[in-house]
Amino acid sequence: MAVLELINISKHFGAIQAVSDVSLSIQAGEVVGLMGDNGAGKSTLVKMIAGNFRPSHGSMRMDGTELNLHKPVEARQHGIEIVYQDLALCNNLTAAANVFLGRELRRGFGPFRILDYATMYRRAGQIFAELKSETRPRDLVKQMSGGQRQAVAIARTRLSEAKIVLMDEPTAAISVRQIAEVLNLIRHLRDQGIAVVLISHRMPDVFDVADRVIVMRRGRKVADKRIAASSPEEVTGLITGAIEQVV
């Protein structure tokens, strides 16, 4: 059974049709690359999955059950996490503080509850170890590389036992070494049975780590293929319109 299924999902903003009749399914432990030019509808589609937008038409199912999301917190409660391109990290805080931001652990009773830093540092360290990341819980985010910052953002998704992680351009504007680190983080999520949707303009990254590639153009899905059955040249043609559709 698919962990997530979209059935004829559409979204319009007044007269603007951002997404039109998109159907897709994602399995547990699968990495799916979502590609398309700017304005293709990728971000709108992902924001519907994340609970930011409600679909104008169509339906979503998770583990076979109808999914009606009104806000992002409801998506998180169902195991859907999103890592935005800007990561939304606080540079003046430690890695552990960012991992638990808004979900801080406390100890004590009644009005005498204080932040449980020791447990948060320990749990953050365990998550970084699970992700095979060199990031340390007490390091300040402002001193981190792009790859380490991605590790912190991804570690946050592990607190809620995510079933699916949506990643928006995670390898944009970072070095080759840091790109390799981020792709390894994605592989570790996959190996733990978590589905990953990788939104990217970087063809090498998608073909390196994804199991499938979905291509969107002008709000419609024009391809959904196994990576082994496609090629960068074909995907480029689908993105630009040189190839119409292979769905």
Automatic annotation (TrEMBL):
Keyword set includes ATP-binding: yes
Domain ABC transporter: 4-243
CDD domains: ABC_Carb_Monos_I (cd03216)
InterPro entries noted in UniProt: AAA+_ATPase (IPR003593), ABC_carbohydrate_import_ATPase (IPR050107), ABC_transporter-like_ATP-bd (IPR003439), P-loop_NTPase (IPR027417)
Pfam families found in the cross-reference section: ABC_tran (PF00005)
Keywords assigned by UniProt, alphabetized: ATP-binding, Nucleotide-binding
Source species, domain of life: Bacteria
Molecular function terms, GO-annotated: ATP binding; ATP hydrolysis activity
PANTHER family reported for this sequence: CARBOHYDRATE TRANSPORT ATP-BINDING PROTEIN MG119-RELATED, SUGAR ABC TRANSPORTER ATP-BINDING PROTEIN
Protein name per Swiss-Prot or TrEMBL: ABC transporter ATP-binding protein
Species whose genome carries this gene: Phyllobacterium brassicacearum
